[in-house]
Design goal:
alpha/beta; Rossmann fold; six-stranded mixed sheet; 42 helices; globular
Amino acid sequence: MKILLIGNDLDTPQMRAVLAAEGCSAQFLPSHGFDQLSKDMLLAADAALVARDHGDHEPFEPGKRLSPIPLIAAIGAENIAAGISSLNAEENALCNAYILSGGEENLRRLARFFKHKRYGVPVPPPPEAVPFDSIYTLSGALYQDAVTYIEECEAGYAAYVGVLSYRTRWQGNDLAVECALKAALNRRGIGVINAFSTGNPDPGLGCLSMEQAIKQFFTKDEKPLIELLVNFLFFGTAEGDGESLFERTANLYARLQIPILRPVQSNYLTNEQWMSAPAPFRQDAALNFDISELQGMIEPVFLGGSVNRRMHEAVQERAEKLAGRIAGWIALRKKANADKKLAIFLNNAVCSGVEATLGKATGLNAFESAVCVLKRLAEEGYAVGNIPKDGEALRAQFLERKAYSDFRWTSAEDIAASGGVLYAMPAEEYARLYARIPEGARARMEETWGSLPGEAMVLGGKILITGMRFGNVLLLIQPKRGCYGAKCTGEVCKILQDPACPPTHQYLATYFYAADCFGADAWVHFGTHGSLEFLPGKANGLGEECFPDIAVGEKPNLYVYNAACIGSAMLAKRRSYAVIIDHASKQEELHVLDGVETGALLRGLSGCFVRPGAGGSEADGPVETGRNLYGVEIDRIPTMDAYARGTDAAEALITRYFAEEGRYPEQIALNMISLDIPRTKGEQFALFLGLVGVRPVWNGRGTVLGMELIPASELKRPRMDVTVHISGVLRDTWPGILARMDEAILLAAAADEPPHANYIVKHLHAASMNGKKPCIARIFGGAPGTYSNSIGLALKASAWQNENDLARYFMDSSSYVYGKDKHGEKNLSAFLEGIKRTDVTCDIVSLRHTDALNSSYSARVQGGYALAAKSLGMKRRMRNYMGESTENGIDVKTLKEHLDDGVGQTLLSEAWKKKRMQQGYDGAADIMCRMQNVFEMQCVNQTFSSETLDTLAQQYVLDAQMHDFMRENNPFAAEETARRFLELESRGKWQPAPEVLSKLQKVYLKTEASMEDGLCGRGEIQGGNVEVVPDGTIAQWKKRLQSTDEEIERWKKQSS
């Protein structure tokens, strides 16, 4: 007998074994695998079982295609309702009961039922009773209440953890992961209550809901018997009472008030494949992360992969990792507040200037908020010591003691003399702690930073740990991550030389000190955003050699984060196991944490559940903060409204170019970042789709089911060829978007259309005619595991001699290919081909959420394309456009128009300037950062006129009132601002009026002299010197760029 089984949940080793034993030939398909069904397969099948896979959004629809099959059983209520079954209701219910009851005997009876229907063999008995929900032991015993189980099997532990698994795992003896985790927890003195459940309530069959299972197995008298729950079930409760199933589940967890953990496993990758994968969950991130985050579940530690699709194998080291982190959460629940120790990390915006940006956090007054937290901790019984009166006093203490990393104006000797050292860690102590990390990670560290203790923040052979202590609370400025020394040049900027470089020895030593020497019980990372979640390693499903995993160790990680920065917050959750405490986002104000937000932080530090919530900006309406924020439902992107706005922008871009050039643009280069997805619901994505001539296919609920070509007759113009430069955060947070984009390109490339109507087809055909292998690679970004932009780093460190250097850095760091089956392989040749053809660069920025000068990233990317084209000898003119998204639509302007407007709305606006002057140190830092952005934009695009730059120099350096404000509140920002103007002039990027230049030089000399007068004279510093260190003089940097340079030259010869 031949049986077709549709739905991955039916494909189990047990099902295969039973059917084979019964002499049945089985064909297994996923529920979306109908393209694999042939007519012969349908005609040959005697029976079909049709189920649904996790992640299906619609009932099974192609029932008519199965009509040649005599016997069809629909499994699950939605498929039954869809009318797929050929059986009567009683018979179909019997098949469901066999499947739901499970076990070898019931599957055997199911096979014999089909034989009965097909061949008239005797009717099998009804399903054998098998528990649907139970506590279980690994030896096979079952219990219905936890108290009896603990007394008989798990007595003597000081704390207990619940582990809830799917019943199918228990039925199929697929418990390797659960066994490994239980053993690891028991070794740490933690008892475990293992239970299973179907998760699907059915009173008639006696199936409990997840809520009922949790209540029965893990509580007594309405109170938890466990300190936390590891829940392997994806979904918990049904929607109802006006709440979604996610809201109802989160409310259940909130009533329990214990952490709910959701470690990740792979049904598709073996452990060996996971080990080598840079992004193990690239194709199923939504299932493994998004769903859990919507319910407030945390700790996505990888525990195991698949042995043969449906069975799992544990990674023992990862089970130990999770057990250690569970022990950390239990400690927070058990310890008295007076005994708890915390390490609070404020941000270090290194490349913008350490001294000028202490604690810099997007939209947050970090120091004032830190004082609020310290005061709240004291009220809750924490031993905090003497708390500064306000944020200004706290920052003043940091600056006075120089309790931060060395940089241009601060040497390690100066830090030590000023009292900024918390602890000087002897090299041998660091060596002992360092020896715990894997050999592969140590090899990478030593290749980049040399043997222990390295050069970063080392004095007298000891590693300096900087910060301040308030009783049982450490306050630290996060260490520098990718450079060393009291300077900022290409020589010391290792992350420029190698974007995947590991953190310094001092970086790890700081975390080791806080964890092992000080004895911190938890981390609190403070503000958007630090560097921990951006350290090299896997995009998700981290392993022991991933540096975020190494640094965070076994300590619970609470992260205060801007509610509007959703993409990078997802990285923090998935790469540093952070519980996010989001705060309000105000475009013009620096927020101070309120009582709700500090209260959520305190609940997290008590080891309680932190409610999930949707992030967002107040520009889009009220946002409920103090939540463990989650992302967007990515299968709804783009929304219909965003698609309409984005495609309108596509037509406006094409129309403007045609009006200016008299032809269509054949190749367009776009820039895409993660912020577009939550802010605009996919306008950048929609712009891309509109240019290519593809549209989403939505269902009635707004879910995107796929992509389809817009017919040429409807499009009424050629399909554009489009390349996309993506950010690292977009790549790793929403890989599904990249797959959709790739799908759109492949649809257009496969279209049966003439070259003049489809420029993708035209370019592929031209490549074939020139003897080149056609390459459908259109989505490019940085190497896997990297998040930095080489042009930005080079500009900040003045590490470039000429425009050709910037072009090389851009081409080298942006030529990694992504898409549905493209996982970051370098393809420089394909990237160069795209640059050669590019007529237009474009981006969209949402002016509802930011302003034109808030970031230079987009301008740097567009400038990178232009400089690369110039470097490659391209003669064609490249237009640079920017779409400005407002409430009224998207207005396509030139990049120059956009940036000039941005200057007028910010730096040259008296209201904007007044607001910054009210913000003291932070306001001066913001001015400096925007001047750095102006500097970078001018270096790569020369967008601003000399007259505009003259005006900026006069208002921000030469104006006495502004100069006094900058010098008094943030002298480091004053020096940086003036020096960047002088660097623009020295590099030929600005021709100032003679009197402006003369005054500027005099003011800078006075500023520099004043800065030097305040130095202690200990140790060497760079100060105001601009040191241009060519890449050819640094062996590691030269070696890494050599292959890129050689390939560029080969490409030039082949293309000439």
